[in-house]
Amino acid sequence: MSEARRAISAARRLVVKVGSSALTTAGDGLDTARLDALVDAIADRVARDTQLVLVSSGAIGAGLAPLALGSRPRDLATQQAAASVGQLALAHAYAESFGRYSLTVGQVLLTSDDVVRRAHYRNAERTFSRLLALGAVPVVNENDTVATEEIRFGDNDRLAALVAHLIHADGLVLLSDVDALYDGDPRGGGTRKITEITGQSDLDGLSVGKSSSGLGTGGMMSKVAAARTAAAAGIPALIAAAAEAREALGAAGTGTAFHASDARLSARRFWLGYAAGTSGRLHLDDGAVAAVVRRRRSLLAAGITGVDGDFQAGDVVDLVDPAQQVVARGVVAFDVGELPDLIGRSTHELPAEQRREVVHADDLVPLRR
Ligand SMILES: Nc1ncnc2c1ncn2[C@@H]1O[C@H](COP(=O)(O)OP(=O)(O)O)[C@@H](O)[C@H]1O
Ligand SMILES: N[C@@H](CCC(=O)OP(=O)(O)O)C(=O)O
């Protein structure tokens, strides 16, 4: 058994995320039999002395049937109405289900600011610590009814990874309708199951796609991103089927395990690379990509081929390679309006007051390692 699986099966603090597709069906709404089976596995794990936070999607899915909505609505206002109705049903179902084990649940609805803004972090951390110390099971979802298109997470995989970092979890388990990561969308058939991801090279060449259920949002893509986010924070992750929750939360012998990175990022660098919102993009040539990603150098104006977005000095931006892949994130030292005159030029050609790195190495986190 791999180190990652051992760590998850022995974790004292665990975040478990369950997706909409594992709890709801479009026509019938919330499937309480499946919810109960999940709670059975979680209660078992809690009884084995694990402090566990459950991040549960499904509010929108659970709100469809009571509002006589046939399928997941596309517009935000109807999604919010469905979430408002569905979240109540979801919380009620969890309270009842955990009640069978005399476990108390606490509902925590978060906006992205609560986990993305560093100043708000402490607040959320305190709430979780207190709930866990009191023996309750926090049940988390995004506060969908107030989240606008601009600020919403949209997918709970990322939220779960950030919560795992926030509560200093020892493991993250992402439960879905699919039993593992495959080298292509398994609906197509002929795909191979991947059981261990030890680093970026194991992900190269895989075709990881969007959701298929019509209820989930992020698909496998957002699960892989979340597992990598956790790994960067030193937290191993497991992607498995909700139907196999007992095995995933027991010996962790199922699904796809993502190994934690050896070089655990500091809280500031983790925030910079994985939590902060970005305001624009800097396009890099191949030489600049090699310098910042492999050699960990600062980004100079000479290696930038273009900029977009609306940012000011001090904002966080994405650094993208010629294939449009985000390869790093960093704090930019210039306003967007200043850069067009500087890019592509060597530092010594620049006016004295602008002779500095565009993104300093200390403020830059490579994302593909
Ligand atoms: N490479 C892949 N491996 C596994 N699943 C994939 C892959 N590419 C796309 N998918 C799809 O992603 C879906 C899971 O995502 P999603 O429906 O958003 O789940 P959830 O609601 O649990 O978040 C799977 O049902 C599967 O069809
Ligand atoms: N907050 C939304 C969930 C959004 C979401 O991430 O869904 P999923 O891809 O099923 O995990 C809800 O409760 O419906």
Features:
12 helices, 369 residues, PUA, ATP binding, Carbamate kinase, glutamate 5-kinase activity, alpha/beta, binds adenosine-5'-diphosphate, ATP-binding, 5-stranded mixed beta sheet, kinase, 8-stranded mixed beta sheet, binds the ligand N[C@@H](CCC(=O)OP(=O)(O)O)C(=O)O, Archaeosine Trna-guanine Transglycosylase, Chain: A, domain 4
Report on this structure.
With 369 residues, this protein is an alpha/beta fold. The chain folds into 2 domains: 3-269, Acetylglutamate kinase-like (Carbamate kinase, 3-Layer(aba) Sandwich), CATH 3.40.1160.10; 278-366, Archaeosine Trna-guanine Transglycosylase, Chain: A, domain 4 (Roll), CATH 2.30.130.10. Helix content is 34%, strand content 20%. The protein is built from 12 helices and 17 strands. The chain has helices at residues 3-10, 32-47, 59-64, 76-99, 112-116, 118-133, 156-166, 200-203, 219-232, 245-249, 267-275, 286-294, and strands at residues 13-18, 24-25, 29-30, 51-56, 105-110, 137-142, 171-176, 181-182, 193-194, 196-197, 237-241, 256-258, 280-284, 304-309, 316-320, 326-331, 364-366. The strands form 4 sheets. It has an 8-stranded mixed beta sheet, sandwiched between helices. The chain is globular. The two termini are 24 Å apart. The mean pLDDT is 92. Bound molecules: adenosine-5'-diphosphate and the ligand N[C@@H](CCC(=O)OP(=O)(O)O)C(=O)O. Residues 19-21, 57-61, 83, 141-142, 144, 155-156, 216-218 line the site of the ligand N[C@@H](CCC(=O)OP(=O)(O)O)C(=O)O. Pfam families: AA_kinase, PUA. Keywords: Amino-acid biosynthesis, ATP-binding, Cytoplasm, Kinase, Nucleotide-binding, Proline biosynthesis, Transferase. Catalyzes the transfer of a phosphate group to glutamate to form L-glutamate 5-phosphate. Pathway: Amino-acid biosynthesis; L-proline biosynthesis; L-glutamate 5-semialdehyde from L-glutamate: step 1/2. It is found in: Cytoplasm.
